[in-house]
Amino acid sequence: MIRPDFICHIVSSLSSYAVRVILISSYVLGCNVENASYGLTVCAERNAIQRAVAEGYRRFTAIAVTCDIKDSFVGPCGACRQVLMEFGTEWDIYLTKPDGSYKKTSLRDLLPLAFTPAHLQKN
Q: So where are the chain's domains?
């Protein structure tokens, strides 16, 4: 079971929108860190990827995303989807709710027709 209550030190004092993720293949956690200048806020997914890369990980296959919203599944924002795509196109993405229920999808489903590193190699 994917636990939506894993401990992560979230900074969401501005929006109270708490998001936690775990890169399942490396067990690296990430959380959103808000900033008064909203454009400088770092989403949980990008936080986890950057942390994992700093720890030496480069290949990922799955991520679980959880949010405190109880009535719907919340997925990564567009910017995070693009960052995830930089590290592979075949991700399983588990969107979870606080009650432990989850929905499995894929990065390809969330970001069809994505611009990937392979596009840069064609020129």
A: 19-114
The pLDDT assigned to 6 comes to 54
CA-based nearest residue to 44, from 20, 64, 66, 26 = 20
What integer is the mean pLDDT of 88-115?
93
**Mean pLDDT across the chain, nearest whole number?**
85
Residue located via tokens 């599944």 = 73
C-beta separation of 105 from 74 below 8 A: no
Residue type, 52: A
Given the residues 45, 55, 86, 90, select the one marked as catalytic.
Answer: 45
CATH class held by domain 19-114: alpha beta
Residue 45 is among the residues annotated as catalytic for this protein: yes
